[in-house]
Amino acid sequence: MTHKYSVRRVVGSLVLAASTSTLAAPGPEGADFGDFWSPGKPNPALCKSPILVGTPLGLPRCLEASNVMRRLNQLQDIATLNDGNRAAGLPGYQASLDYVKKTLERAGYQVRVQPFPFTAYFPKGPGTLQALAPQPASYVWEEDFNYLSQTDPGDVSAPVVAVDLALGAGNASTSGCEVEDFAGFPSGAIALVQRGSCNFEVKAENAAAAGAAGVIIFNQGNTEDRKGLENVTLGDTYEGGIPVLFATYDNGVAWSQTAGLQLHLVADVIREKTQTFNLVAETRRGNPKNVVMAGAHLDSVFEGPGINDNGSGSAALLEMAVLLSKAHPQNKVRFAWWGAEESGLVGSTFYVNSLSETERQRIKAYLNFDMIGSPNFGNFIYDGDGSSFGLQGPPGSAAIERLFEAYFKLRGEPFEGTQIDFRSDYAQFFELGIPFGGLFTGAEDIKSEEQAQKYGGAAGQPFDPCYHQGCDNTANIDLNALEINGDAMAFATSWLSLSTKVIDDEIAAAAKAAEGATTLRQQSVRQAERWGNHYIK
Ligand code: BES
Ligand code: ZN
After folding, report:
1. pLDDT tens digits for 130-151?
2. Is residue 341 flagged as an active site residue?
């Protein structure tokens, strides 16, 4: 009995704290909540209670990193049995989907499998690049050149024609961005194009439209960090139909200065229009007109098992869904495991575009979990209020950011904002104006001295040294990162499952401000009508 009382009190004071964002980090007396809530020790009584398990402090308490890790081991086994990956369009993805689906069904969920079209792309073997004239030469795969992801296959021997290059430090190359760049381009030649200004797809499709048989895009060379080889992509929608290789700046410059150059290039890849799937499930309980969504992409890249990216988000979400299956949320909680994120956010984009206006309006929040166990982690919260990076999320996103912050503060754990850069599945929710937020523990970016002080770990090293590589396996997970970020996920999801007031209030305030702006505008128009025509005309 006393337990219930304390839940109400604790939750009540947290509502206050999150809505005013004055929640202080707990001091030594921070163990106020007592052993019942304290993380670390299992508490089966709490986790079996349908009321308590679904509360903002109960759910994180019941979501244990060791259980999330068990699920990650399952995903690792799936990858190991399926050519080492779980990439969309391949058996490892199908097996991952089946695993999540079965687990959810066993917990009592009705699971919706949503098919959608996408273009599967897999490199089959290394590419070839040789000079045939004026001097024979061979170039080294993954040193001099690589594939642009989503290139079409092809085998081409042809003269090379440079397209509107702008060489040198500080250049502002627009090579290949305009159709006119290809005026007089000889059909059947290989286009030598420089990176810069517009995206790769535009350059390659312009070349294809001008009759090019193949394209080499070399790095821009405007700065030192844009000279080497990089893994870049044409995007899922590339329709050039010709092979496209990426090369280093120095090679590009040398080729552009070689008279009579003929190259032989081969792209040994598979590219195929096919379909893959999202998986969606929701709590039986809760108001269907007030939906809180939480999502994670389930696919990996082709290069590895994708245990941190994004087995971590997927497994934590699955564990949370199982725990919530017996809970009593006020709002419906909808879980999504996205397909083909790594092919360009394809699954989440399809889902969002397939919503009716009514369905869209019912989604009060979208929470994204992509990479939450990075081995050299930082605790990053999407910068919903724009306070760290300028770009704000739709109204309501600041409240979501505050909710996550409140939990990190409560646990006395450090955190910081991370830029809304559209590199994960929240992008389309943002476009539709749905409030969003989420967590991330870092990828290829380098940890600073300051961040190493804050979180521990190694300065000067990437947050995830195995990002998009074969070594993104179960050894590539920090259990503490998984624990604290899984708990923060559970806290925010549970919170919003009980009430979206913090979001509703922020939306109402934004609408009021916009209305105020309209009123001002109307006033000035009226004023202009009254006085004004003399002044404006
Ligand atoms: N997990 C990453 C997202 C990510 C990586 C966010 C690094 C921030 C920093 C995601 O799976 C991914 O790799 N996204 C692609 C973009 C997407 C549109 C294909 C990326 O960032 O290259
Ligand atoms: Zn990812």
Report:
1. 999 999 999 999 999 999 999 9
2. yes
Q: Considering the entire predicted model, what is its pTM?
A: 0.86
pLDDT digits (tens, 9 = 90+) for 233-291: 998 899 999 999 999 999 999 999 999 999 999 999 999 999 999 999 999 999 999 99
Measured CA to CA, the distance from residue 455 to residue 447 in angstroms comes to 10
**Domain 126-267 maps to which CATH number in 3.20.20.70, 3.40.190.10, 3.40.50.10240, 3.50.30.30?**
3.50.30.30
Q: What is the DSSP letter of 292?
A: E
Which DSSP category does 462 fall into? B
Identify whether the C-beta of residue 291 lies closer than 8 Å to the C-beta of residue 335. Answer: no
- DSSP structure class, residue 516: H
Sheet holding 154-162, edge to edge: 137-138, 128-133, 262-267, 154-162, 190-194, 214-218, 244-247, 145-147
The environment of the single-atom ion ligand 2, i.e. residues with CB closer than 5 A, is: 309-310, 370
Provide the CATH number for the domain formed by 46-117+274-500 in this structure. 3.40.630.10
Total residue length of the chain: 537
3-state secondary structure of 107: coil
Task: Name residues whose C-beta falls within 8 Å of residue 431's C-beta, 6 or more positions apart in sequence.
Answer: 352
Best of 423, 468, 469 for a ligand 1 pocket test (most atoms within 8 Å of beta carbon) = 423
Q: State the distance from the centre of ligand 2 to the C-alpha of 518, rounded, in angstroms.
A: 40
- Closest atom of ligand 1 to 427 CA is 18
Which of helix, strand or coil describes residue 165? Answer: coil
In angstroms, what is the span from residue 297 Cα to ligand 2's centroid? 7
In ligand 1, the atom with minimum distance to the C-alpha of 468 is 13
Q: Classify residue 21 as left (phi > 0), alpha (psi -120 to 50) or beta.
A: left
